[in-house]
Amino acid sequence: MTTADLWILMPLFFLAGGALLILLSGAFRPGSYGTWIGVAAALAAAGWVLREPPLLLAPQLGLAATPFARFFTVLFCVTAALVLLLSHSHNERRAIRGEEYPATVLFAAFGMSVLAASLNLLTLFLGLESLGFAFYILTAIDRERPQSAEAGLKYLLMGAAAAAFIAFGIALLYAGTGTLAIAGAVNPLGPTGEVNPLVVAGWGLLLMGLAFKVSLVPAHLWTPDVYQGAPAPVTAFLSTGSKVAAFAALLLLLPAMGAGFARIQGPLWLLCLLSMVVGNLAALRQRNLKRMLAYSSVAQMGYVTLALVTGSVEGFRAVAFYLVVYTVTNLTAFGAIATLTGESAMDEIEDCRGIGRSRPFRGAVLAISLFSLAGIPPLAGFMGKFTIFAAALRGGETALATAGIIMAAISVYYYLRVVAVLYAAENDRQISFPSLAVPEVLALSVTTFLILLFGVFPGALLAIIGKIIS
């Protein structure tokens, strides 16, 4: 193993080593340091990635420290650190004890980082399934709630089916091209322009598996049940890190298709349209807050797919920008819900009544995140949707962009309905909300600041993304 290999592996060593250290520390001081070791390991990995590597490639490992990989690794590590901060007090209130929770969060970040740095389909699949196994555990980790176990079982069964689709798809890609390298395995067109049916079939299976990972219709049915049953910080991590990782995989694969991208543009178009329409219309009917956000996330992933459909560099850049915006916004929304969850879960939208008056900080944070998801300026969500729709219109997808704009306008209703309840007069229901802990204040302050920053000054982030996707 060369020095370059070790350099590229160091962030993964930080994450895996931190997870193992957390598990070992539990043998001496159970429950004492897991969160803080996890936060330190995640931030150390992110800090290391920000250093310029001596060489970008480690071909023997199937990994690369490209600007793309480093960008998403930092995003995954910071997301994991914020989730751990949001989870610390929440887990104490819900009696979720043990070192397995922070260790599994780090293992999930490990899988995401491997995926983003993948050079071949094998390491990409291993990274994708590593984070999948971590989320099976995290979803069912609240042993005091039957809904959590049910959500974990549903996610496991459907996730296993999705993994089979992806594995079989990769097998067909290998059979059709004779290589697992991303650069050579994903183009369905041969050297003379003929269509390779095995590669086309492989892409069909691969798209179905990845559609599950990002909750695109019709592979979205697990989303509301899992979002509702999982602990709120886990839902925050699942709705951000897992989906961003799957889209990062698509951003690795699609540019390598070249002219063959036209062969899957039609299925992507249909997945996009169905997700935007079904997600928004289903969210309109929800009375449960988590289920409403689950269906809205289906629609949000439809918007992201809209930019993918263009197949253009501008569209891919819009995807990367929107993924960052979506991450900080959903972390804020579910983080605020987590801080309001005490011995009983805060499930119904009506449970939010008057929180903006009685708990002004958390009410404001939740309202800002909902405004951002609705695309209200000058918040980050507005800039994210603007880049998505602008890329789609410039890419010639006028009909699909028009449908997306109409659906985005409809979504404003169900987001603002929650905000109206937040600041409505309190009713006679006596709901006891827990006090805010310092880690929760820190995490929510950071994510809320980023929502405002990326909305008002998006130029710096767009410039970085312009360098990693070209």
Describe it.
- There is one protein chain.
- By secondary structure, the protein is mostly helical.
- The protein has one domain (3-468).
- Helices cover 73% and strands 1% of the residues.
- The protein has 19 helices and 2 strands.
- The protein has a two-stranded antiparallel sheet.
- A hairpin with a 4-residue loop joins strand 1 (57-58) and strand 2 (63-64).
- The protein is globular and about 70 Å long.
- The two termini are 31 Å apart.
- The mean pLDDT is 89.
How many domains? The number is: 1
What's the β-strand tally? Answer: 2
Shape: globular
Taking the sheet with the most strands, its summary is:
2 strands, antiparallel
Q: In angstroms, what separates the terminal alpha carbons?
A: 31 Å
Roughly what fraction of the amino acids lie in strands? under 5%
Q: Percent helix among the residues?
A: over 70%
Task: Give the oligomeric state.
Answer: single chain
- Taken in chain order, the helices and strands follow as HHEEHHHHHHHHHHHHHHHHH
Number of helices: 19
Strand order of the largest sheet: 1-2
**Averaging pLDDT over every residue, what do you get?**
89
Uncertain runs are none
Structural class: mainly alpha
Task: Kindly list the characteristics that best describe this protein.
two-stranded antiparallel sheet; 19 helices; 2 strands; globular; 73% helix; mainly alpha; single chain; 470 residues
Short description:
The chain is mostly helical and 470 residues long.
Itemize the secondary structure elements and their pairings:
Blueprint lengths: L2 H23 L8 H16 L7 E2 L4 E2 L2 H27 L6 H17 L4 H19 L6 H32 L4 H4 L11 H17 L8 H8 L2 H22 L8 H23 L4 H21 L3 H27 L15 H4 L1 H15 L5 H15 L3 H25 L15 H19 L2 H10 L2
Antiparallel strand pairs: 1-2
Helix pairs in contact: 1-2, 1-4, 2-3, 2-4, 3-4, 3-10, 3-13, 3-18, 4-5, 4-10, 5-6, 5-10, 6-8, 6-9, 8-11, 9-12, 10-13, 11-12, 11-17, 12-13, 12-16, 12-17, 13-15, 13-16, 13-18, 15-17, 15-18, 16-17, 16-18
